[in-house]
Amino acid sequence: MSIFPFHWWRTVFFLIPLISVYTIVLGALSIGSSVFGKRGDFGHFCARTWSWLILATTGVNVDVHGRELLVPNETYVFTANHQSIYDIPIIFWSLPFQLRIIAKESLGRFPMLGWHLRRTGHILVDRSRPSTDVFKRVTSIMHLGLSLIVFPEGTRSFDGRLHEFKRAIFVLAIESGMSVVPLTVNGSRHVMRRGRLMTCPGHVTVTVHRPIATKGLSRSQAPELAEQVQHIVATALGSGDVERTQGGMVTK
Question: Domains of the chain by range and CATH?
Fold first, then answer.
């Protein structure tokens, strides 16, 4: 009798090889397209396609609530809780906006993924040496009509519990004048838990909350804004993050 469950074998010998193919093919297309335009629109199309393929292949069913609260073509800073490595494809597929992420510098070292991030306008930050040009890059993204995804906890949660939101991103949002949109992701940690090489089919809910305007706020109000956003996310998280693993296709 195998000591590894079925979904471990499925992950190692089916999902990882297949997702690697998705990453290589779409990453190459994205990087190639960056030669013809710095905004990265086609690269984002590749990222959304990559996200859908990963979710569909894994068997992750995503329900999205509150998208009607967003104004098309507006720029936002989407701030989400972080439960799983699957949060990125879940959010990319769930939101019909040109999205860029603020992520740790180490992601830029991965072949294809790192090259895609660098060539299509994403912001990679060295946490040991924070750079003063991050604000300039955020402002540039806003002027290009792009939105940001950030995970203010700074890392994935081991147990699904929400950790304190770091305040730096809220300072950037205030200084750039971009509205902040809290996002609550429920259930993704049961698809792939941190520290576990196994994925399971499952059901995930993404709740889009009402945008919070930052114009007129000062830097000193960033801690208050961080607490407000964290409270909104935590309230919606509630008891909704219960273990739910089931098959299914992706829904929008």
Answer: 6-237 (3.40.1130.10)
In contact, 201 and 244? CB cutoff 8 Å: no
Q: What is the pLDDT of residues 99-136, one digit of tens each?
A: 988 777 766 677 777 767 777 777 777 766 655 677 77
Q: What is the pLDDT of residues 5-20, one digit of tens each?
A: 999 999 999 999 999 9
The DSSP output letter for 46 is H
CA distance 155 to 160: 12
Q: Please give the Cα distance from 70 to 72 (Å, whole number).
A: 6
- 8-15 contacts, C-beta under 8 A, 24 or more apart: 8/197, 8/198, 10/199, 11/197, 11/198, 11/199, 12/197, 15/57, 15/58, 15/199
